[in-house]
Amino acid sequence: MNATTFGLDIAKRTFQMYWIEAETGEVVNRRFTKQQLIEFLGQRAASRVALEACGSAHWWARKIAALGHQVVLLHARFIRPFVQNNKTDATDARAIWTAAQQPGMRSVAPKTADQQAMLGLHRMRSLLVKSRTMQVNQLRGLLYEFGVTLRAGRLAGLAEVRERLGEIEQIVPGILFCALRDQLQFIERIEADIRKLERQIVAWQRQEAACRRLSAIPGIGPLTATALVATIGDPAAFKSGRELAAYLGLVPRQSGTGGKVRLGGISKRGDSYIRMLLIHGARAVLFKSRSKEAWCEQLSRRRPANVVAVALASKMARTAWSLLANNRTYQKDYALQKTA
């Protein structure tokens, strides 16, 4: 007999679940509290539980799997077409159940606690970097209002501010100068916090074999390697490297009718943070590496630099999937060696 499939809509305090009893055919759409849901699933035979990949979904996936059930995480975009009538918890649970029944429905790989923790460090670092940029730009703007211009670049600009503090004190009114000096100290504290998070990220990269393998790919450093491993989760969730590249929004948009398909710019779907890291890494290879691949050189002669960078970022993502899925180490000119 086939296992029962549950459609679970999760929230902070109330949880709605939809299923059909296999023995009686009874349709059930029931609300639970958190503890009631855990106790109910703990008493049920091994079943298939589908839920939306949203906040706390990965924790619930680990919890439900520990109770002996198979967990299916679905992207919200694939569930929405099955919502009937008004959007309520009951209709959402039924939509999740219906989406899970569709053949070929793609799912999201549940993340481990360590992978979630690593992504948390990345999010914290990203916010600190954004805050630092805002603080530095404001510092430049406020000084410019009093005729003080600084060298371009964050490091050069901050170094110049520290060198010219005495001069700036004579130019800027005292009430503002004290606040600017405090702001400069605040930027230094942000930078110290960023360095601390980066040390934690690098430490995790060194202890994870998958991260070390990805770090061997040109253009992928500790930040990109750890973010990729934590985001991908189980590489078996993707059929190919191209599917991973599509998941990260690094492939062209497609639109067509009447049998004619048109390709546009990249779709920019998925995690913009991972896409940004890959594209920045690709730019570093294009403009700083002395040993670029031949196809990069050839493409650079025909296409703009931005197009080449995105193409290289897409290839880096496909290479990363291949290494993870096949448990291989990076080899330069692997395709040429294979055909030789």
Unreliable stretches covering 5 or more consecutive residues: none
Main sheet summary: 5 strands, mixed
Summarize model confidence as the mean pLDDT: 92
- In DSSP terms (H or I, runs of 4 or more residues), the helix count works out at 15
Instruction: Please give the order of strands in the largest beta sheet.
Output: 3-2-1-4-5
Q: Note the beta-strand portion.
A: 5-15%
How many strands appear in the DSSP assignment?
Answer: 7
Amino- and carboxy-terminal Cα gap:
51 Å
The figure for the number of domains is 3
Shape: globular
| Percentage of residues in helical conformation | 55-70%
Radius of gyration: 25 Å
SSE topology string: EEEHEHEHHHHHHHHHEEHHHH
User: What structural class do the secondary elements suggest?
Assistant: alpha/beta
Keywords: Coiled coil
Protein name: Transposase
GO molecular function, one term: transposase activity
Domain Transposase IS116/IS110/IS902 C-terminal: 211-292
Structural commentary:
The protein is of the alpha/beta class and 340 residues long. The chain folds into 3 domains: 5-100, ATPase, nucleotide binding domain (Nucleotidyltransferase, domain 5, 2-Layer Sandwich), CATH 3.30.420.40; 113-207; 210-339, no CATH class. Helices cover 58% and strands 12% of the residues. The protein is built from 15 helices and 7 strands. A 5-stranded mixed β-sheet has the order 3-2-1-4-5. A two-stranded antiparallel sheet has the order 6-7. Helix 5 packs across helix 10 (222-232), helix 8 packs across helix 10 and helix 11 crosses helix 14 (305-326). One of its GO terms (biological process) is DNA transposition. It holds the Pfam family DEDD_Tnp_IS110. Residues 180-207 form a coiled coil. Keywords: Coiled coil. GO terms for molecular function: DNA binding; transposase activity.
